[in-house]
Amino acid sequence: MSELRWHPLLREWVGVASVRQNRPQLPQTWCPFCPGSGRVPEQYDVFLYPNDFSALGRDNDPFTPEAAAKPFGATGAQGSCDVILYSPNHTLLPSQLSAGHWRKVIELWTSRTAEMFADPLIQHVYVFENTGVAIGVTMPHPHGQIYSFPFVPPLVQRELDGAKAHFDATGENLFQVLLKGELQDGRRIVAQNEDFVAFVPFAARFPREMQIYPRRQVTTLMELTDEEKNSLASLVKIVRMKYDGLFGFAMPLMMTVRQRPAKGEHPYYLLHVEFMPIQRSATKLKYLATVETGAGTFLNDTVAENVAAELRAIAPAT
């Protein structure tokens, strides 16, 4: 059983899931995500797999947000944790997936988001991927994850609060203001198509951080048209190939798809994709040490405009 404990000073939930201590660490001779393991279909393109070591689950005690009123409040860690298997090919890198295959991944993200948005318990659906041993990946098979939370995670809430404050003051969507500014400046744009723009943000926190914004105002994956899903898949493919082409090896990174909460109206938000690499040079990693982790202030060793120029110059392999 897992639980959520309330941190009264930071005003956020902390998950306690001791079962995760037992998850395998880069197994060499067996993979549960490969056909033939008995855990997945013998044939699949993409597949949603319930996490064997889930931090959130339906078997946990009920989630009671009122527990946050207590200094030592605790409640059941209800929700779900899913693994999104990108391919049956164990050694395939995400950058090697075709744009058409990325479209299948996006379709699975979308269908699971729709299922979880309809669940009365779920407040936020968080799509993400960890890639690379340096990030802490425990299974090398190409995959991402979806966590469906009974609350809105704190960083998402901070984005919502910032966007709402700007919207209330000006009537403008802050994300669209940022995108317009990036397009006008141009120096931090890396790639774009008719529906999406990939850029290094002005205040990037991670070395070679990139974000993908839609040109149209959409707040969830479910609002994308078929054409926009194709465009997003194409740009995700380009971004991943540029990352892996930069130093000649798979870039260790975190990717997340940020969308509005599952409940309520949020016209000031914007669906977007964030890439957070930790490789600051071909031979050096960016560690999130005391200033970042202890103080919450990021120090970036790279300059956004220079990084964007480097990434633009990488010609993605076809």
CATH class: Alpha Beta
The sequence of SSEs as H and E is: EEEEEHEEHHEEEHEEHH
**Radius of gyration from the alpha-carbon trace, in angstroms:** 20 Å
Write down the domain tally. 1
The CATH homologous superfamily corresponds to: HIT-like
Strand tally, please? 12
Name the CATH architecture.
2-Layer Sandwich
Question: Strands across the major sheet, in which order?
Answer: 3-5-7-6-11-12-10-9-8
Uncertain runs are: none
Total helices: the number is: 6
Distance between the termini: 46 Å
Search tags:
20% strand; 9-stranded antiparallel β-sheet; 3-stranded antiparallel β-sheet; alpha+beta; 318 residues
Written description of the protein model:
Helix 1 (99-117) crosses helix 4. The chain is globular and about 50 Å long. 27% of the residues lie in helices and 20% in strands. The chain contains 6 helices and 12 strands. Strands 3-5-7-6-11-12-10-9-8 form a 9-stranded antiparallel β-sheet, with helices on both faces. Strands 2-1-4 form a 3-stranded antiparallel β-sheet, with no helix packed on it. The protein has 318 residues and is of the alpha+beta class. A hairpin with a 3-residue loop joins strand 8 and strand 9.
Topology overview:
Layout: E1 3-7, E2 12-16, E3 47-50, E4 74-76, E5 80-85, H1 99-117, E6 124-131, E7 143-149, H2 154-170, H3 174-185, E8 189-192, E9 196-199, E10 210-214, H4 226-247, E11 253-258, E12 272-277, H5 290-295, H6 304-313
Quick structural overview:
This protein is α+β, with helices and mostly antiparallel strands. Helices cover 27% and strands 20% of the residues. The strands form two sheets. It has a nine-stranded antiparallel beta sheet, with helices on both faces. Strands 2-1-4 form a three-stranded antiparallel beta sheet, with no helix packed on it.
